[in-house]
Every structure is written in structure tokens, then in C-alpha cells.
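Q: Could you fold this chain for me?
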Amino acid sequence: MSVEKFRIETKSLVVTLILVFNFLLFFRQPIIAADFKDDQILVKLNPSLSSADRLSFHRDISGFKLKVVPEIALEVLQVNSSGLLKTLDRLKSDPRVIYAEPNYLATTYELSNDPAVLNNSEWGVYKIKAADANRSAWNLTHGSKEVKVAVVDTGIDQNHEDLGGKIVGQKNCTSSNTSDDLYGHGTHVAGTIAALTNNAKGVAGVGYNTTLINAKALGDNGSGYYSWIAECIVWSTDNGAKVISMSLGGSSSSKAMEDAINYAWNKGVVLVAAAGNSGNTNPSYPGYFSQVISVAATDSNDAKASFSNFGSWVDVAAPGVSIYSTLPNHQNAFKKLNYGYLSGTSMATPHVAGLAGLLFSLGNLDNQKVVRLIEENSDRISETGSSWIWGRINVYKSVTAFLEGQLFTPTPTLAPTITPSPKPTATPTLTPTSVPASIPAAPTAPTAPKSPSKTPFTSRFCSRYPQFC
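A: Sure. Below is the predicted structure, expressed as C-alpha cells.
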């Protein structure tokens, strides 16, 4: 081949590659943009900047300040959507900026289900031993109305018969003009946590007498931006929440979200979040953050739900298939009024949040002790050690462990470890399981899983309990 011909063919190949790259980039950008607000960025500036320097920064990027979350020094700025990605790239090397990122989108994690194949038993509270014909956590404690659980979600129905009087605080962090739940998801979550119990109506809440904070962070379409979630986390913390329940998630990590999580954790709050419904090991945020209890979903047979995310970053499991709970008494996305069945890791999460609320009501417990009581006293059902670290929660065992003074004390040589299973190839599907018509008897012992290996602490454990590592 002649040198000239080689040069011509090489140039042709380079031009072709550039065209292909530009073609892919052209079609890739709208997909990325769909995951975040295309005209907003989240910025944390260097605290040493003067007011004049801050004004200069906003002018330099043509950014209009929409909102500030002062507790974590977070600014939500409106910028030119056509130059958003370039602006973010430029700010990476700007010494005035600690971080700058898109305002990512998060969504609810629920899967609707056909209730016709099921009956009206609320099987989840029996499976986790909150209620039971014999050994029940509710025989030991009914919780306390002084313990507030924040539901960071789509809102809570304001006048539901099974939630009336339970809402003790409200904040609307969204662009919606109401704190009410027009979607339905948040109301369903709230019922599992703290529906009015022993009132001869509807359903029982795991947290029994615990109360609710309605922190609306998702809009009336079931999705919302990370800035809304971060603001609601901070507000809930500052307004007395001991537990924050987040049945939501997004696929992108975020410094702003992490700042809000750390703010709450450092003030003694227990944070709980859904692992996600993709049926794989992909992380979901905020559940992936080490200070959050991430929750997978199981069915009434203690099997992992086919849709549930899993892996070494998932802490515990809880009932999440065909969960019967409250729904709004007005029009909502699920087209059921007052009560209904939903499935998802969103439905598993409030079981754990309700348990955390019960534990806080028992005495002088900090958030580290509450988390350890939940995790260490979980039942080692099948897939413990492969799909999640600790097991499926057991309310009775967690409460009893505290009352009997059996709080786990870790040593620097033992910690649970897991090896994630391969990513499933089949598209996740939801297959309802039968639910007993009456209060179930004590369940048969599950197949014993492999015991956790005796290996050094996982990074997730050490980040939550550095004093033990």
C-alpha cells in the first residue's frame, strides 16, 4: 500500500469515527438530560468566600439563585439549559466551588398489583413479628407519640380515617401547590409506618403510636428532584424526626444528597431507603449511602421479590410484595380509594422505618444502637449473605434484645460479608403469592443460610461505626 493511499484511508477512518461519535453524542445527551433538571445545578461554594465573591460567582455563570438550604450550604441555581453541561465541566476546576452537580431526578419505588388474587390480611406485620398470636413486639411496646417518623415522599392524605391525628408536621419541598398526596404513594407508605392501630378500622402501623411528619419531596406525578429531597431531609431533621423513611431513589450519586444524609445522621436520625426495583445489583441513591439502611423486598414465603435490587450494599430485607395499606380517600394514581395493595421495595422500607420508631420509644437510644438492633436481630432467611447483609427484619427480636440488654457489641475481627449474585438476565416480573385469611401461626423455620464469614469489617460498616474499625 502506498503512503499516500494509507494517509487517505486513515483520514477517512478518522472522519468516520468523528461522525459516529457526534451521532452517538447527539442522541445520548437527551437521555442524560432526562435524568435531571436541564436548567438547574446544585452548588456548594467555599465557605471562605465573601458576599461580593459569591455575587461575582453567580454573575460569572449567569446563575439565578432559586433556593438555599443553609444547613448544608446548598444553593439551587437556575442556569442556561443549553450550556448546563459546559458550565458543570468548567466549575470542576473553579477554586470557589466545593462541588457542582446536576439536580438529579428521583422516583418512587412501587409496583402496583392485582388485589383480586389476594385477601384482606396484612401479612407483613405478622411475618416480622410486630403482631403475632404468641410472641408479638406489640405485646412489649406500643411505641410513643413523641417519636416522629418523617415520610419523605409524595405527601400524605390529610384526612384519611386511619391517619387522622397522626400527622404532627408538614413541609412541601416541591413545586406542587399542596402538601396533600395526589399521587397515593406516600399515603401507602405512611400507613405501614404508623396507621392508627387498634381502632377497628383499616390497617395497623408497625410503629403503632409513633407519629408522622409529612415531608413532601416528590411531586404529584411520583417523581422529584434531589434538591427537594435534600431540603426535606434537613427540614425533617430540624423539626424533630427521629427516623426518615425514603421509599424513593435515583441512579445518580450526589454530593448534595450525601450532605443532607450526613447532616441528619450526625444529629442522631436513623435513615431508611428503598433498594430499588430493577432486579439487579445496581446502586440506588440515597439507599447506597453508608449512613442509610437500604431495604430489599421479600414475599410472604421469605423469598426475595423478583423485582428487588440486591447486593453487598443492601443491608436488610422486609415484606414488600402485595402489601395492604392506606391509600388516599380521593383520586390518585392507583385508582383505589382508602386502602389497597402495592408491591415494591417502597413497601418494604416503611416496615423498617416503623421498627426504628418503636425502638426509639424504648429508652435512651442513639441512632447507631437503633441500626445495630435492627440489623443484628434480623432473621437469617435464605439469600442472607448473598442478596443482603443481615437478614429479614424481626421486630420482636429487636425489641426483646434491647429490653434484655443484649445489644450487639462488634469486635474488630468479625463482620458480615456478602458476595453479590450475578445480575439476572430475565426482566423482573411480579408474581403474587397467596396470603393467609387469618392471623398466621408461627412460621416454619426458614432454610438456614450460610453464616457470615469471619473477615475484616466491610467499608460500609466501618463508615457507619468508625470507632470499631
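A (continued): The chain has two domains: 35-104, 109-417.
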